[in-house]
UniProtKB/TrEMBL annotation:
Homotetramer. Transmembrane segments: none annotated. It comes from Psychroflexus salinarum. This is 4-hydroxy-tetrahydrodipicolinate reductase. SUPFAM superfamilies: Glyceraldehyde-3-phosphate dehydrogenase-like, C-terminal domain, NAD(P)-binding Rossmann-fold domains. Residues 1-99 form the Dihydrodipicolinate reductase N-terminal domain. NAD(+) binds at D35, G71, T72, T73, A96, S97, N98, F99. (S)-2,3,4,5-tetrahydrodipicolinate binds at H132, G141, T142. Keywords: Amino-acid biosynthesis, Cytoplasm, Diaminopimelate biosynthesis, Lysine biosynthesis, NAD, NADP, Oxidoreductase.
């Protein structure tokens, strides 16, 4: 495939490595203002940029017939607008807060566990994420996805960051520590016991590999808005 890489930082460079190892042509790399004529050479773009640039990168791709796979976090207040744009342009768009297979399995587990815990009022739930010191947004996109899944399955109505210790919402704690690629845990706690599930990334390769697989996959699809759940088709209990 002819690939554009939007955002050439830690993730953009890892995507480049994986895409080349799978024999793709990288036709455009941008780390700032887009050159639309260059962008148009691509079939699909993968965006790992910054929250302030993600929405414009997505809409520019959709307006120019380039399928877009976005992994940038921290811009989701405009997600619905991006979906509408995809529909009006008859484009192809996929966003994932986390592209790794492991975290997508973890998402399924989280949803299943939340369903089981719903109604067990003696337990309270909280989330924790830990990332490297350069991460710009907090809480992580993955932690927000985990909280949204729990909200869908239980009586919790919202999440808080920083934590507020308010019984009706889910506290999300975010720590920044050198060398951590991405750690997430979900903990249910009662006076009697504690139940925890966690995921720890050992490198950025899983994220980049998942994004390249998603880009290969979306090129085979018709117009639409997709997620990693569509790509991976896991054998889920949910
Ligand atoms: N969904 C997932 O699986 C994952 C998502 N992420 C997310 O991806 C994003 C990038 O992460 P990471 O690579 O670690 O961050 P980096 O800071 O290493 O890279 C971001 C890059 O974007 C560039 N940039 C700045 N402005 C623009 C613009 N207008 N258009 C395109 N690029 C621009 C920056 O350039 P400069 O340095 O010159 O400013 C930089 O090279 C974050 O939001 C992060 O949370 C990260 C890992 C996995
Ligand atoms: O910035 C990162 O590094 C990561 N960001 C994503 C997020 O915000 O969830 C995914 C992963 O945890 C790494």
């Amino acid at each position: 495939m002819k690939l554009a890489i939007l955002g050439y930082g830690k993730m953009g460079k890892t995507v480049e490595e994986i895409a080349l190892s799978r024999d793709h042509d990288i036709v455009y790399i941008s780390s700032g203002q887009l050159d639309i004529n260059e962008l148009k050479n691509a079939d699909v773009a993968i965006d790992f940029s910054i929250p302030e640039a993600a929405f414009n990168n997505i809409t520019s791709c959709l307006e120019n017939g380039v399928a877009i796979v976005s992994g940038t976090t921290g811009w989701l207040d405009k997600y619905t607008e991006a979906v509408d744009k995809c529909k009006s342009e008859s484009g192809r768009f996929l966003y994932a807060s986390n592209f790794s297979v492991g975290v997508n399995v973890f998402f399924e587990l989280n949803s299943y566990l939340a369903k089981m815990m719903s109604g067990l009022d003696e337990y309270g739930v909280k989330l924790k994420e830990v990332h490297h010191l350069e991460k710009k947004d907090a809480p992580s996109g993955t932690a927000i996805s985990l909280a949204d899944q729990i909200i869908k399955e239980t009586s919790y109505k919202s999440w808080n960051h920083p934590p507020k210790n308010d019984e009706t919402s889910i506290d999300i704690e975010a720590e920044r520590e050198a060398g951590i690629f991405g750690y997430h845990d979900v903990t249910y706690d009662s006076d009697i016991d504690t139940i925890s599930i966690s995921h720890n990334a050992k490198s950025r390769k899983g994220f980049a590999h998942g994004a390249v697989v998603a880009a290969e996959w979306i090129l085979k699809q018709k117009e639409g808005v997709y997620s990693m759940k569509d790509v991976l088709q896991l054998n889920s209990p949910n």
